[in-house]
Amino acid sequence: MADTTGLLVNAAACAFGFGVLHYVLQQLAQKLHPSDGPKARHEWANYVISCGQAAISGFAGAMGLLFEEPFASAFYQVCAFYADIDTVHGHSTTLKVAMPIILGYFIYDLLLAAVGCGAEFEMLMVLHHCLCVIIWPISYHYQAGCFYVLYMMAAELSTPFLWLVVYFLPKYKVAGSAYTGLGLLMVLVFFSVRILPGPALLKSLLASQSYWNDVNRVVYVLAMITLPLPTLLFAYWFSRILGGMFAALTSDKKDT
């Protein structure tokens, strides 16, 4: 219990730290973009923080998934579609160190949206953040399904590429072949880390059923309800990304 309490305290401290950093970046934005209004400055600071924490959290999650046992072995088995895989058990030092950063970011992001600052928030993003803040500490506390938490952290590696193309390039008027090339790279990265693993992860939920027998029943039910959701959510976001890229490419052709 003390371990989980420490994680939550650290997450709250990270949320406060992100709030302080947001204020500093907002002041910087005022000097870099003097013509921007307060909302635009809040938005710029929010996206800078989002990209930074995603790079850190995504790298940590990927390292835990690839090199930390028993998760590295389980990851290979999931990718190979083994019929019997223990993706349930295992203590992760990576999560202990890195999860407070991303949980703190989610808390900061939700609070920012609640007071009407930062980037525009849709309900699916609110749901995503809330589920992560609630479910991930439960998974960590019961040491059940930490493999999936590591994967979802690793999936954050696509976020800097996404905001680069969706927000920063348009803001700084980057267009033409540079925008198209970086856009295609973003699509490739998003597909590789969020879409391609989907079928194997869903299959692993079936392949790991016998290993959930010693897990608290409420935790098991929560896991079975929530673990398939990211795959569906990622597929929906990917369809929107493809639609946006197609619209941008056809618009460029019309302009020329």
From TrEMBL:
SMART domains reported for this sequence: TLC (SM00724)
Positions of the TLC domain: 39-250
Swiss-Prot/TrEMBL keywords: Membrane, Transmembrane, Transmembrane helix
Pfam families: TRAM_LAG1_CLN8 (PF03798)
Membrane-protein topology: Multi-pass membrane protein
Keyword Transmembrane in annotation: yes
Superkingdom of origin organism: Eukaryota
Keyword Glycosyltransferase: no
UniProt-annotated location(s): Membrane
Transmembrane segments annotated in the record for this chain: 6-25, 45-67, 97-117, 148-169, 176-197, 217-238
InterPro entries membership: TLC-dom, TLCD
PANTHER family according to UniProt: CT120 PROTEIN, TOPOISOMERASE I DAMAGE AFFECTED PROTEIN 4
Protein's name in the database: TLC domain-containing protein
